[in-house]
Amino acid sequence: DASFPRSYVQYMYGSGGNITNSNLSYLGYNAIYKRGVGFYNCADRTIENNTLVDVYGGIYIWRSDNFIIQNNTVNGSRYGVYEYDSENIQILNNRLNSNKYGAFLHGGSRNRVDSNVMNAGIWGLTFAYGEHDSFANNNTLSSMVMTAIRFYHGSNNTLDNNTVVSCKHGYGLDRESYNNTIRNGSVHDSMDYDYFFWHPPNANRADDNHFVNTNFSAPRRICFGGDASMPCRFNYTDLLSEDLWMTTSITSASYI
Fold first, then answer.
1. What is the DSSP annotation of 205-255?
2. pLDDT for position 201
3. How far apart are CA 178 and CA 245, in angstroms?
4. What is the pLDDT of residues 165-189, one digit of tens each?
């Protein structure tokens, strides 16, 4: 029962210090500021070499800056790591397995997600609700029930050399997700589509995204959702300086 009160760790307004080499399992529940291991309005912290199992909210960073979150294991939680309206959060070399969301970046900027492993969750890495100018490099995501790497109102982010294996969808771009750059990396053995562009009727477009040296090749499938009034425009070229755009309409087919 997610509403059943459990112990939690919460630092606010500059309180607390670093958290290292600790077992922080079976914490948190569905109540604000009591969701697991959290920081609100703090700065300059390190969370390192910890184990979290069945922590309702996982590690969550709320309106805080300059965190290093590295070498942690977070399993069986709602979030592995959750960032909200924060800057310079470095999520490095963590194992985020069997969580509903592996790493969820929400409305912040200049954050970095590098060299993490996310396996057997629902959603992998999400850039959402205004997350911008952030980076994700050298991550491995596998066996996600839904989408491995998702943009939902996330723009101007750069991803390089990420590997996606055996997920329902490799990349998903949805609603006001534009000017993102996806370089290198690969998507293999998707259950459904490797790349999923979704344009709901009456919504802003997921548009003008760049793909550089990715594996757009048969039998890879690219799905375009929405309707024919919302065409998808994306750039697939090895040179970002070249203005070579593909514009698609799903009048005749919803995927290629």
1. ----EEEES----TT--EEE-S-TTS-EEEEE-S-TTS--EEEE--SS-SB
2. 43
3. 13
4. 999 999 998 877 888 888 888 888 8
Find where tokens 């090749």 sit. 217
Give the integer Cα–Cα distance in Å for 238 and 215.
Answer: 12
Number of helices (H) and strands (E) in the chain: give both, helices first. 0, 28
What's the pLDDT band for 244 if we cut at 50, 70, 90?
very low
Helix, strand or coil, per DSSP, at residue 176: coil
What's the token pair of residue 254? 């919803």
Comparing CA positions, the residue from 125, 120, 88, 130 lying closest to residue 104 is 125
- Give me the phi and psi of 45, to 5 degrees please: -130, 155
- Among all chains, which residue has been given the structure tokens 């070498």? 71
Q: DSSP H helical segments within the chain, as ranges? A: none
Q: How far apart are CA 97 and CA 142, in angstroms?
A: 10
Q: What is the DSSP letter of 23?
A: B
Give percent above pLDDT 70 in the chain: 79
Q: CA-CA distance, 144 to 242, in Å (whole number)?
A: 34
What's the pLDDT band for 252 if we cut at 50, 70, 90?
Answer: very low
Are 105 and 124 in contact, with CB atoms under 8 Å apart?
Answer: no
- Can you tell me the distance from the alpha carbon of 105 to that of 111, in angstroms, rounded to the nearest whole number? 8
Across the range 70-75, mean pLDDT stands at 98
Residue 38 in contact with residue 32, Cβ under 8 Å?
no
Tell me if the bond preceding 200 is cis, omega within 30° of 0. no
